[in-house]
């Protein structure tokens, strides 16, 4: 298996934001976190970005491209922005604080 090297300056730009939905909060019980990532990001890049940003050990990465949905604003028809969803499974004992205490 060939280990890919990534430019560490580009990794934080791959992760857009954590997704907090009902399904994503249920996955937190299994130590799985859901993030919105750029559509061009690959699984090894997502793994490297999460490990570097949050200082955790990633066991697995699952990705999902939701279908484009058509939207209409008045007489103009278009599509919603395209995004990719990544479900990241962390090693036992690791966790990410999505809502830090103030």
From TrEMBL:
<comment type="function">
    <text>One of the early assembly proteins it binds 23S rRNA. One of the proteins that surrounds the polypeptide exit tunnel on the outside of the ribosome. Forms the main docking site for trigger factor binding to the ribosome.</text>
</comment>
<keyword id="KW-0694">RNA-binding</keyword>
<dbReference type="InterPro" id="IPR013025">
    <property type="entry name" value="Ribosomal_uL23-like"/>
</dbReference>
<keyword id="KW-0689">Ribosomal protein</keyword>
<keyword id="KW-0699">rRNA-binding</keyword>
<dbReference type="GO" id="GO:1990904">
    <property type="term" value="C:ribonucleoprotein complex"/>
</dbReference>
<dbReference type="InterPro" id="IPR012678">
    <property type="entry name" value="Ribosomal_uL23/eL15/eS24_sf"/>
</dbReference>
<protein>
    <recommendedName>
        <fullName>Large ribosomal subunit protein uL23</fullName>
    </recommendedName>
</protein>
<dbReference type="GO" id="GO:0005840">
    <property type="term" value="C:ribosome"/>
</dbReference>
<dbReference type="InterPro" id="IPR012677">
    <property type="entry name" value="Nucleotide-bd_a/b_plait_sf"/>
</dbReference>
<dbReference type="GO" id="GO:0019843">
    <property type="term" value="F:rRNA binding"/>
</dbReference>
<comment type="subunit">
    <text>Part of the 50S ribosomal subunit. Contacts protein L29, and trigger factor when it is bound to the ribosome.</text>
</comment>
<keyword id="KW-0687">Ribonucleoprotein</keyword>
<comment type="similarity">
    <text>Belongs to the universal ribosomal protein uL23 family.</text>
</comment>
<dbReference type="GO" id="GO:0006412">
    <property type="term" value="P:translation"/>
</dbReference>
<dbReference type="InterPro" id="IPR001014">
    <property type="entry name" value="Ribosomal_uL23_CS"/>
</dbReference>
<dbReference type="Pfam" id="PF00276">
    <property type="entry name" value="Ribosomal_L23"/>
</dbReference>
<dbReference type="GO" id="GO:0003735">
    <property type="term" value="F:structural constituent of ribosome"/>
</dbReference>
């Amino acid at each position: 298996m060939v280990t890919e090297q990534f430019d560490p300056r580009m990794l934080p730009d791959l992760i857009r934001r954590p997704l907090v939905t009902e399904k994503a909060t249920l996955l937190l019980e299994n130590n799985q976190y859901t993030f919105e990532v750029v559509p061009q990001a690959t699984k090894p890049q997502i793994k490297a970005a999460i490990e570097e940003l949050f200082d955790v050990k990633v066991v697995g990465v699952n990705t999902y491209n939701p279908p484009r949905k058509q939207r209409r604003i008045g007489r103009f028809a278009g599509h919603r922005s395209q995004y990719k969803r990544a479900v990241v499974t962390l090693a036992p004992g690791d966790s990410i604080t999505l809502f830090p205490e103030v």
